[in-house]
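Box 3.1 A note on notation
Throughout this textbook, protein chains are presented in two layers. The first layer is the amino acid sequence; the second is a token string describing backbone geometry. Keep the layers aligned when reading.
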Amino acid sequence: MHLIPLRAPLLVGLTALAALNLHADEPVVLDTAPAEYRTLPREYRLDGIVEAVNRTTVSAQTQGQVQEILFDVEDFVEKDMIVARLKDTEHRARVAQAAADLRSASARLEQTQDEYARVLGLFEKKNVSESAMDQAKADLAAAEAELESATARLEQAQEQLEYTQIRAPYSGIVTHRHIEVGETASPGQQIMSGISLDQLRVIVDVPQSVIAAVRRGGSARVYLGPDEVIESKGLTIFPFADMGSNTFTVRLELPEGTKALFPGMFVKTGFEIGAKEELTVPAEAVVQRSEVTAVYVVGDDGRVSFRQIRLGRAVEGGVVVLAGLADGERVALDPIAAGVVLKSQSSRGAAAEHANG
């Protein structure tokens, strides 16, 4: 910082003097900073489209009549919540039948085990033939296999019953409803589509002339506004170009939970493709007067001038100046105080001209 002493004239208004915390004829000190060149990443700007990482169409996994649809388009659904129900009368009957078959197989196995134990005891005492022993072993193996089969049929029936309750695979918003209550759903038929806003990414078509630099740079950012920038978590560059446009598709992964973005939105993106020297000033020195962007320039003699500039992008610790300033010129960091001083200088000059006239 460089401090330049000035003289506050008697014509400065009381309000301005209070703002500067001064009395008349006391020195005015303005905090200034130089416009200076900095080595900044060189960016290539392109438009991108936001899309959801999780985009899913939930389909029926069993056959049944649609009995209830619990959500509609634009509704928010939590993960694992039921979005639709199919009629389950037939599926419950199959579960009951499979459960009965399992109980029968269990009883059959228990009986066969008892018979096997009895025949084994007699065989060890040489009271039954070897063929009878073999038959007892075969009956036991068959009973065990029947129990396994009955268990599998029950699990399958229970799974089919669970499929009558169609659940959301993740938390998100419903975008389409593909079926109505009363229709019969078949396995694979679409029921509902949705997206998650928790994980988003940006798709950009990058010209082949800069794709090599994008690969080398390996970083990108998304601009939501003049003061809001989101750094990409990573880049995915498709290894082939579109034959029609000769552009490469690049995906910018955004941090989880990014707000203010929705699938389908256009956004500005910037890819780092090198570095260059750019003139910068602190952001707090820039003022907006109607449609004019300007700074207050403080000369070596302490005089203040109002200078229109043309701004570029925001960078860490300041903004890029494209035109209107030269390297080394000092700008006031408090535009309000600088405006008061400029006004007092103008008033003093006018008073001097009047006196001379």
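The longest strand covers residues 36-52. The two ends are 40 Å apart (CA to CA).
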